[in-house]
Amino acid sequence: VQLVESGGGLVQAGGSLRLSCAASGSTFRFMGWYRQAPGKQREQVATIARGGGVTSHADSVKGRFTISMDTTKNTMDLQMTSLKPEDTAVYYCNVVAGSREYWGQGTQVTVSS
């Protein structure tokens, strides 16, 4: 299983970024984005189920972030809008294949005030 993330960067507060995760090597039941800020634990940001596309978003990002999946390409995106300095973190792609889960290498998102 290989996960390749892209789309992180530096943006001003109120701006937008789109993260992408390209997955290969298996069929994935669930995909999601997590983030980890300095000195904090990794937290779930949003998840999406392959069958039916059911999504969930953390309360802190509801209304601002949207997760989506392209099952034909095995890619997952996270559209982030109205970004806040507290969204600054390393964002990780996560997938579940069978009984195992896999993590991407992480992409840095920095939001300046």
Describe, in short, the structure shown:
0% of the residues lie in helices and 58% in strands. It is an all-beta fold and 113 residues long.
Written description of the protein model:
It is a single chain. By secondary structure, this protein is mainly β. 0% of the residues lie in helices and 58% in strands. The protein has strands at 2-6, 9-12, 17-24, 30-36, 43-49, 55-57, 65-70, 75-80, 89-97, 100-103, 107-112. The strands form 2 sheets. Strands 2, 4, 5, 6, 9, 10 and 11 form a 7-stranded mixed sheet that branches. It has a 4-stranded antiparallel sheet with strand order 1-3-8-7, with no helix packed on it. The mean pLDDT is 93.
Specify the structural class: mainly beta
Largest sheet: 7 strands, mixed
- Specify the helix fraction band: under 10%
**Average pLDDT across residues?**
93
Overall 3D form: globular
- End-to-end Cα distance, whole Å, is 37 Å
Computed Rg: 13 Å
Individual helix count: 0
Write the element-wise H/E pattern from the N-terminal end onward: EEEEEEEEEEE
Count of DSSP strands: 11
What percent of residues are in strands?
over 45%
Low-confidence stretches: none
How would you summarize the topology of this molecule?
Elements: E1 2-6, E2 9-12, E3 17-24, E4 30-36, E5 43-49, E6 55-57, E7 65-70, E8 75-80, E9 89-97, E10 100-103, E11 107-112
Parallel strand pairs: 2-11
Antiparallel strand pairs: 1-3, 3-8, 4-5, 4-9, 5-6, 7-8, 9-10, 9-11
Provide key terms for this protein:
7-stranded mixed beta sheet; 113 residues; 4-stranded antiparallel beta sheet
